Amino acid sequence: MTTAPDIEIRQLREDEFDEAALCDRTAFSTFLGLPKPAAFRPGADVIGPRSRAWREASLALTENGRLAGIALMMRWGSVAIVGPVTVLPEDWGKGYARRLMDELVRRAEAAGVEDMALITHVQSPTHVRLYESFGFEMQRVTTIMVKQPGDAIGMDGCNVISADDDKAVARLVQGARVATDEVLPGLDLSSEITSVANENTGEFVVVQGDTPGANGFAICHYGPGSEASTGQYYVKFACVRSDEDATAHFAALLQACEARSAILGADTIIAGTSTARTHAYEAMKSAGFRAIINCIAMMRPAGNLHNRPNVMAIDDWR
Q1: 79, 130, 180, 307: least CB-packed within 10 angstroms?
Q2: Peptide bond before 301: cis, by omega within 30 degrees of 0?
Q3: 115-120 and 202-207 strand pairing
Q4: b/e code 271-288 from CB counts within 10 Å (16+ = b)
């Protein structure tokens, strides 16, 4: 007689972060056909920063005490961004991803989150069906884009705020809310700004103005311990206010981020946007960015959030 496995879903412990990262890399490298786990987002730390930013939404699934799967979310104000949700390949087909998603949805609802969003691989019907069963609906493609930084690019119209400048970061948190509230009421990137500052995993590029971030800002990762892969300058989120200066401010922000990537010696600058944000997508292509990964955005409940043609924003929900 076969004994049913002992399954537990609980908060991921900090002493499990390395094992959780290996689970994540193993699952994605297997799915994508990469030669080894380390080939997936090499040098990036997704688990640690996200887990510490929202501990209650950092989950481990164990089978007989063995870590078999993980699931995380990011809290962006009224929006919860799901991911990664990964299960070790030897445990695929056991329904563990469904159990993790069920708990994530429960915790998001308990936290009062209004919307949930994620991106997944559109070429995988299994992934899409899983998320659809929880009420997520497919939207437009999100494209992850890269560019090699140029040599002679300036910072015209923008400034840099260091992660260790506590006073400037505190002002940025306030100013950023002005910009994000125009993009989508309730959207709030305070947790991402605070995470980069606390972990010293990057910097912030801001459009000049009386209040840092109010006209526009970018949250940028680079170096060890950050979510950037080795050699990357990773723009995780950026947006500008939706006003008559939006196009010029967005172009300045792109140029300034590229300048910073060159100054820091990055091989590439990487950033993503929804193709539903047609103005931002075209601006990025005009600036020389080229797509390397296309994913599908999914929302719960169905809707566009800030994926609208006139929204000038960058974000990467991977």
Answers
A1: 130
A2: yes
A3: unpaired
A4: bbbbbbbebbbebbeebe
User: What are the residues facing 228 on neighbouring strands?
Assistant: none
Number of domains in the chain: 2
Residues 6+ apart with CB under 8 A from 227: 44, 45, 46, 49, 201, 221, 234, 236
In this prediction the pTM is 0.96
Q: Is residue 127 part of a domain?
A: no
In terms of C-beta density within 10 A (0-12 exposed, 13-18 middle, 19 or more buried), how is residue 179 classed? Answer: buried
What's the CATH code of the domain at 282? 3.40.630.30
Burial (CB < 10 A; 0-12, 13-18, 19+), residue 2, is exposed
What are the pLDDT tens digits along the chain (318 aa)? Answer: 568 899 999 999 999 999 999 999 999 999 999 999 999 999 999 999 999 999 999 999 999 999 999 999 999 999 999 999 999 999 999 999 999 999 999 999 999 999 999 999 988 999 999 999 999 999 999 999 999 998 767 899 999 999 999 999 999 999 999 999 999 999 999 999 999 999 999 999 999 999 999 999 999 999 999 999 999 999 999 999 988 899 999 999 999 999 999 999 999 999 999 999 999 999 999 999 999 999 999 999 999 999 999 999 999 999
**Do 189 and 250 belong together in one domain?**
yes
In a domain, 132, yes or no: no
Both tokens of 148, joined, read 């090699």
The number of CA neighbours under 13 Å toward the Cβ of 57 is: 27
Asked whether the beta carbons of 232 and 195 are under 8 A apart, the reply is: no
Whether 152 and 218 share a structural domain: yes
State how far the Cα of 283 lies from the Cα of 296, in Å rounded to an integer: 20
Closest CA to 268 of 253, 237, 290, 286: 290
Q: What are the CA-CA distances from residue 9 to residues 20, 114, 232 (Å)?
A: 14, 24, 34
Domain that holds residue 75: 7-113
